[in-house]
Specification:
Shape: rod-shaped
Keywords: Membrane, Transmembrane, Transmembrane helix
Structural class: mainly alpha
Largest sheet: 2 strands, antiparallel
Helix content: 25-40%
Number of helices: 2
Protein name: F213A protein
Distance between the termini: 70 Å
Length: 84
């Protein structure tokens, strides 16, 4: 008869928790650094881009269609989508 407790169940539980934490960490790193599960973006057509409404930044706020930018000359556009 031994008065020492049996640590077998405790050890098995600690291994399970440890392996679960390692698995969660690896999964998090893979999902954060790859685009494996993201949907692929669609390419915008010129007609779609032509109809987008743009707003100017600064004190004089003006709204116009994006097509106005390239009606006379070509244009390079950088678009930023703001939440809301």
């Amino acid at each position: 008869m031994s008065f020492l407790p049996d640590f077998g169940i405790f050890t098995m539980g600690m291994w399970s928790v440890g392996l679960g934490a390692i698995g969660a960490a690896v999964t998090g790193i893979v999902l954060a650094n790859t685009d494996l599960f993201l949907s692929k973006p669609e390419k915008a057509t010129l007609e779609f881009l032509d109809e987008i409404e743009l707003k100017t930044l600064g004190s004089e706020e003006r709204t116009f269609k994006a097509g106005e930018l390239w009606k006379k000359n070509g244009a390079v556009i950088m678009a930023v989508r703001r939440p809301g």
